[in-house]
Structure prediction request, 482 residues.
Amino acid sequence: MNRLRPFIRTLERRDRLSPDELALLSSAQLRVQGFRRGQEIVRAKTQPGESRLMVQGISGREMVTAEGKRQISALHVAGDFVDLHSFVLKRMDHAVVALTEVTAIFVPHAEIRRIIDASPHLGRLFWLMTTIDGAIQRAWIACLGRSTAMQHMAHLFCELWTRMEIVGLVSGHSFPFRLTQAELADVVGLSAVHVNRTLQELRGLGVVDWNGEQVEIIDFDRLVALGDFDKTYLNLTQEPR
Amino acid sequence: MNRLRPFIRTLERRDRLSPDELALLSSAQLRVQGFRRGQEIVRAKTQPGESRLMVQGISGREMVTAEGKRQISALHVAGDFVDLHSFVLKRMDHAVVALTEVTAIFVPHAEIRRIIDASPHLGRLFWLMTTIDGAIQRAWIACLGRSTAMQHMAHLFCELWTRMEIVGLVSGHSFPFRLTQAELADVVGLSAVHVNRTLQELRGLGVVDWNGEQVEIIDFDRLVALGDFDKTYLNLTQEPR
DNA sequence: GCTGGGGATTTACCTATGTTAGTGGATGGC
DNA sequence: GCCATCCACTAACATAGGTAAATCCCCAGC
Prediction:
């Protein structure tokens, strides 16, 4: 399946896939669906019967506090499952919303079950993808807890570039990022005003620029240093798993 | 195995286990090891050949920034695997340190492999435990990003009580928590001074008390309200997975 | 060409939390 | 009994980041 291409690329950066495994993946019964900006891809507290795989656009896990504040606890790009964990977790503890126009594939849990029963190795790779998800969350926790606004945003831009590169979404040191500053604020746990201030500072330093459409990394080395970014946690090495 | 009791309780709160599955788990080749306060249970960047399961004490995932600041991104109590994800991830993106005296079981990855090959259902339950781990991390992200010191600490105490209750570590509304305030500060991403201030505030409100040994929840309902705590994310329902 | 709306940006002010530098109490080694 | 530690706690001050309310800018619709 053409639509599975990005997902297969994320897998192949972590392990080798046999022709049989590729065929097995391609045999899955899928439904494609589009979402508009702001639309919910998965509702919180529901018990989904399928997991959704991003094909295009950016979505995020959304959690809303009692006071109505929003925190986005993950961003998803093409090739990412937004809720593969719902396969074992059964019940969503968060929502997933489209932050841009999004195209997603719906993979029934029955299909996932069929695939992992037929190939325990693919089963472990599915498991792997949820644990990489966890590793990313740990990195975000460290950023939220122990770094300044600038360091945090620098780290985030490094991470996004690296993840987008895997699925061929970057061109040079730029990648598409069509969110509003207020949305980015909900990602990094800051106010929109402070995100604005910090972006100007980063721009002023000549490190990154972002016009609301594209993030352009001007000085990658300095961005990495600023964000204390070490991509180890993304597990981008082909190993038998 | 007696030592596996807490782990089996965490599993049984999420799904039913057959006698065969219990026997399979008990058949695992294990090594028990003790750790002193402050000792590393797993080193960062290593490629462990086994995963460690907590039997006693409290440990935490530790990440250190370039400036030497420390963030603890997870706490583990009896029954929790500290690094089950290393089974598929292969390389640690963080360390795990003993925050109290700790007893842990070392489970070779070969044994985990043997168990999940023999029982795909147990395999899914192992997978489940890593995704619950992820759900907890999401809750922490929301706390770090969008709540005040008091709300965050209230949430943490609710979570810890709930998790300890599963494995029989609570007595009434109290549970053992022998960390220093500075260590707690690294958990909630605050300074030790502010943790101290906030604890006094919580004490003053008559909601929780903590003398460095035991956390005593005085008014559980208010603590839950303060922390906006909803235990759904801990997935404490027995369901076929 | 006018209008309305959604963002980006700015300004002024506010506050939660951090930092530094203590004090004092408990504990353990010798 | 003295000393060194470690840790809770305090106090005074500093600051990163939040809040509220404008203003500006762009663009779509008419």
